[in-house]
Amino acid sequence: MVDTSKCPCGNDKHYKECCEKFHQGEASPETAEILMRSRFSAYVKKNKNYLLETWHSSSRPKPEELEFEGPMGFRWTHLTVVKTEEGKESDDKGKVEFVAHYKVGPKAGQMQEDSNFVKENGKWYYC
Description:
Blueprint: H1 20-23, H2 32-45, H3 48-53, E1 74-86, E2 93-104, E3 107-120, E4 123-126
Antiparallel strand pairs: 1-2, 2-3, 3-4
């Protein structure tokens, strides 16, 4: 069955037309913001392999340290990109400020982060 749900990253595309190609290894994100959005989608989809592969080796956790299980009923709901500095196709570093929204049972919450990214050998990584 084809997944026709909207992509969790916040773009107005279906997952299959957006982040799935990155998660399946068929393409690499062209910018730091696209990588950040695809990583958020990977958290929603619980795609540990993609998260580890796109984490820079200098800060990458061990696979057993990356957990998805949190409090009962925890789920990521949506993403808001606040600001992007550099991180374009021609750059080798970038910064993305975002707010990741979640729910724990009926209560909503958010996590705001200012993330750094580097591009090495033509591929973006989260630092």
